[in-house]
Amino acid sequence: MVHWTPEQLNRDYGVRARLDTTGIDAELRAFLLRIAALVLLIALFVTAVTLAVLDRLVFRPSRRLYRHMLAAGADPDHPLAYRLNSNRDDELGAASQAFDHMLERLARDRTALRQRERDLQTMNTTLEAQVTRRTAALTEANHRLQQEAKERQAAEQQARRLARFPDENSNPVLRVNPDGEILYANPAAIPLLRHWEDEQRLPADWQPRLTAATTAGRVTYEEVAVQGRWYLMAINPIPEEGYLNLYGVDITDRKRFEAELAKRNTEDALTGLPNRQVFRDRVGQALRERASDRGRAAVLLIRIENMDLINGLGGHQAGDLVLTALARRLRQAVAPDQTLARLGEEVFALLIPKVASVDELARLSEQLLGVLNSSVTSQGHEFASRASGGWAIYPHDGADTATLLRNAQLAAHRASRQGERQRYLFFVEGLNEAVESRQRRLRELRNAIDDGGLTLWFQPQLSSDRRRLSGLEALVRWPHPSDGLLAPDAFIPLAEEHDLIIPLGEWVLKAACRQLHEWQQLGLPVPRLAVNLGARHLLDSRLPGFVADLLRDYELPGHCLEVEVTESTVMEDITRSEEVLSRLVRLGVQVAVDDFGTGHSSLAYLKRLPIQRIKIDRSFIAGLPDDAQDRAICRTIADLSHSLGLQVVAEGVETTAQAAALQQMGCNDLQGFLLARPGPITRITHWLRHEAPRP
User: Fold this and answer.
1) Mean pLDDT, to the nearest integer, of 377-406?
2) How far apart are the first and last CA of the chain?
């Protein structure tokens, strides 16, 4: 209740006002509750936003770092495969970069450790070989000493025993005075007397032996050859009686064994030619002679390049017969003062002790290689041998035996790689450096494969209307520490030549499947990932099993993986290729023929092999759309493929006009710089997320 008086109002009347407050408390409480609920909702929203930001900026990178740390710890052999490649500039970015640096240092340390282990293994192998050789030599020497000791002991025992029964002894027994006059000879000594042509006195050259035995006062021994037999003669002085007794023991078998052993140590058992040891000795002797008269000598190393093929076709017995025939031909073609030897399974060597001119060596090369590069008939079959050779000339190409032989081997190896262009080569300066550089590059490549030092780039493939991603092609690259990023042409031939192509291919397949799995985890599905395979892979029956394990481990369907093979690769052994590719197709893996039109282009293998896709070689794309022949070839390939139920991919597309022409011809997919250039994982991931066309 409120009351205002007339005086307060300055009126003639007063006012009384009354307010009902019965519901004010309830409304006030409701208002406060609404305010509290609003504040709570605002707090929850702010908290959710804050947590989302923290998850994106902190928690998710932290979990990714944690997963990579666990994975790197579980797979210490491939540390570089777990790098984060983060470009953030905050504390987590610094931690990720520090983790990457740690992995790189770990990779370098493991590479150095593997190299030290290999060096140690090499040293251990060399030491074991030396110990084995020396042990064998000691064993042989000990055997001969024991044999000689036994023979001498037998001779002494025989001498003591037969002194009582000389006439009945089947071995020669003689008694002579110090002047060599024969006082007694048993019947078995008659061949000796006839050989000496005197039955009264020993030959004059025996006098010093008798004097030496008498002076020494002990038994001495002499070996005597008589009519194809060998005798060990024991000269036993009897000074108190004034004569000497001679007792003989037949050692023909021992001498024959020693001769066979000497022959085995100096001759090649198969061809009868001097072996490596004799050849090196004769080269050393020739070099010493040329050093005194300032002349020149030369060494030719000859390689029979296709012995593996001959052994595979006819067996090792046929291979031995072929080598024997070739050795006989070479022996007939060389001069008497030249030394022909066999140094290894398929390697012959020729020493020219005195060289008049290089032209003489060239003519001799043509003659010898002409003899060798011809067919040999063995066991009713005709085998065509193929040879190449390398020359090294003293003193220009080497001042000692080892250097000369090594340089000749380098020249022969280079001639072998030249093929039909050059069947023999002379050693040239710089060849050593080139070979050493090649060997160093080979070791680096082996380490890169073992330690994850390679990387994959990818190039997209789009549908011909460029509205849909069809797939990616995996391209291996080598980030070389000193030479920069190397393309496949710089190291694939080296891997194929030295049996590294199988582990390299397995690394590429594994890395490709792992990356495909990561893209799927990121919500970036790739319809198809293509990987190139070589001839050695198609001949490897283990490949389908390896691919099956990868698909299972990375939870990938088979159709996500495509293998690309070339025509020439398939045709090396089409039966084996068909078997391996069929097993891959049963896994769901797709097969594409790369560089179509540049190889055999046989319709038979297109029908026979389980192929889903053909790639037109870029050489036919370059002239489009103006070149009429290129247009005809591309259209023919497309029509042929479609009639066989195959898809067509055109690679090397660089202009819009080319793309339009190929689309008009019916090509299904395109690949080339016009669509997208090859790039590393980070760039392709960004392209897939932001730039790849969506259907």
Assistant:
1) 83
2) 79
Q: What gap in Å lies between CA 467 and CA 695, rounded to an integer?
A: 6
DSSP class of residue 90?
A: S
Give the pair of three-digit tokens for residue 129. Answer: 């070989």
Residue 244: beta bridge partners? 176, 237
* In contact, 254 and 147? CB cutoff 8 Å: yes
pLDDT of residue 211: 87
Instruction: Give which of 182, 236, 184 is closest to 210, Cα–Cα.
Output: 236
CB within 8 A of 539, min separation 6: which ones?
572, 573, 576, 577, 580
> Per-residue confidence at 555, pLDDT binned at 50, 70, 90?
very high
- Over residues 46-99, the pLDDT tens digits come to 888 888 878 777 777 778 777 878 877 777 777 777 777 777 777 777 777 787
User: What residue has token string 């031939």?
Assistant: 493
CA distance 492 to 511: 17
List Cα–Cα distances, 365 to 230, 298, 338, 389, 642, in angstroms: 46, 12, 14, 8, 54
Amino acid identity of residue 691, one-letter, is E
The string of DSSP codes covering 585-629 is HHTT-EEEEEEETSS---HHHHHHS---EEEE-HHHHTTTTT-HH
Read off the pLDDT of residues 109-135 as tens digits, 9 standing for 90 and up.
Answer: 787 788 888 878 877 777 777 777 777
Judging by beta carbons within 10 Å of its beta carbon (0-12, 13-18, 19+), is residue 26 exposed, middle or buried?
Answer: exposed
Alpha-carbon gap, residue 149 to 137, rounded angstroms:
18
Strands (DSSP E) contained in 379-536 are 381-384, 387-394, 424-426, 455-463, 469-480, 484-486, 529-532
